[in-house]
Design goal:
Layout (H helix, E strand, L loop, with lengths): L2 E5 L6 H16 L4 E5 L4 H10 L15 E4 L2 E5 H9 L3 H4 L14
Parallel strand pairs: 1-2
Antiparallel strand pairs: 1-3, 3-4
Length: 108
Amino acid sequence: MVIKVYVASSTGSLAVKKHQQAVVGFLEANRIDFQEVDITMLEEQRLWMYRNIPRDKQPEKCNPLPPQIFNNDRYCGDYEDFFLSKENNTVFAFLGLSSQPSVKDSES
């Protein structure tokens, strides 16, 4: 099970940069394994991302903006979906993960 976060390393949008940083920062802080996929460097990955976002989640007039989150090939959602799951304390279910990774106690 691999969480993939599709990002754009070269974007002029401050909002997109902040959203990408929020998602990646949360995953790192919670020790959730993930793969960052840069759609500005890999055309195949960008096209795959566009094709695998459900139609009801695609904007009417433009391409979907990063970050877009997948668990393997299963679409989890975009930044707004991630933010809502974080607010509702349901991120692990949103990501399709069974539970929070355990952290070993260093005082044992």
